[in-house]
Amino acid sequence: PWKLMALVPMGIPNQVLKHKTVKKIDEVLEFID
Question: Which domain holds residue 22?
Answer without folding.
Answer: 2-32
